[in-house]
Amino acid sequence: MRKRLFFIYNPHAGKEHIRGKLYGIIQAMADADYEITIYPTKCYLDAMEQIIALPDCYDLVVCSGGDGTLDEVVSGMMQRRQRLPIGYIPAGTCNDFARSMKIPGDMTKAAQIAVTGERFACDVGSFNENSFVYIAAFGIFTDVSYSTKQEMKNVLGHMAYLMEGMKRLKKVRSYELKVTSQEMSFEGDFLFGMVTNSKSVGGFKSIIGKNVIFDDGVFEVTFIRRPSNALELQEILAALVVEEIDSKYMYSFRSSRIVVESEEKIPWTLDGEFGGEHSHVEIRNNRQAVDIIIAKERRAAISLEAALEAEGLLESQRLEPAGPDTWESPGEERLLLPKYPG
Question: Which terminus, N or C, of the chain has the lesser number of Cβ atoms within 10 Å?
């Protein structure tokens, strides 16, 4: 019996390049001996609704679009009893998640990986009752993606985000917050915060921390305090440009659960799309919740087990999973994941 594949794509993502690539994409799927069902999305949240209602007879879901399309597909998958593996063909403007997974921008090559690669059990975030794939954020720059018109994104690409973001510097907004996690708790006036599971966010790479692992059950967390004067703002922007953490103004740590509370409702973005306004947010890491199809050689750079093996920890200390955010060595002190890799 032939395997069945459900291909769902956003025909308007990015510069609509997929329109000229469909033949190569479908041919790659057919060459892998799949029976293919094709569905172009029609409106916002259509992808999520289609995945929720998808019959269990399918073996694989492949989606194509930007980060928002992937977010909808993963969010739908999280609501299913039977979760199917997901292949991803990036077609958006930033494609941060694809960049982190080293999924190629060439759509035909990405399609080949989607149908011939291997499963990777990836962490997925919960944001109150919603889900996200790689980022939940608020503050300066975070509304750029959904406030920039699609036509501008299509013409200018990544430059559109930078241009729109520069406008925000003239009217920086900050929020009084209380942040609570097992690792640390703090309060203050913050102009930016993000909880991520990605090596790249909007083109910035090192700012979210090095040695990012996608199945370790923890997020990389960054909060930036509001500067008290223009000089401090320049120092913060300079740190962002050189992709470094400035501890005078920034909190940076790893956590599996974080609660953010405020007196006023704050607009959040989830995977580059508007995530609503909230005064109380609980963000949790659902460890290894959804299978993403990746190139076989990519696993070593993104998996916890490979990272621990590289450090000689799995063999020498016989580390075993002890929960969503810890690994345990028998007879020894429990080791917290944020320490590994260091």
Answer: N
Rounded Cα gap, residues 37 and 49, in angstroms: 16
Tokens 């919603």 sit on residue = 130
Q: Tell me what percent of the residues of the chain surpass a pLDDT of 70.
A: 75
Q: Give the pLDDT confidence score for residue 229 in this predicted structure.
A: 79
pTM as predicted: 0.81
Report d(CA 44, CA 341) in Å as an integer.
38
Residues 6+ apart with CB under 8 A from 248: 235
Task: Read off the tokens for 316.
Answer: 């020498």
Q: How far apart are CA 37 and CA 39, in angstroms?
A: 7
Look at residues 222, 171, 166 and name the one whose alpha carbon lies nearest to residue 194: 222
End-to-end CA distance of the chain: 47
Radius of gyration of the chain (CA): 20
Residue 339 · residue 310 · CB < 8 Å: no
Residue with the two structure tokens 């962490």: 123
Instruction: Check residue 151 and give left, alpha or beta (phi > 0: left; psi -120 to 50: alpha).
Output: alpha
Give dist(CA 80, CA 231) in Å, integer.
50
Confidence band (pLDDT; 50, 70, 90) for 310? low
User: Nearest-CA neighbor of 109 among 64, 145, 161?
Assistant: 64
Instruction: Return all residues near 52 (Cβ < 8 A) that are at least 6 apart.
Output: 76, 79, 80
pLDDT tens-digit readout, 138-170: 987 665 544 445 444 444 444 444 445 555 555
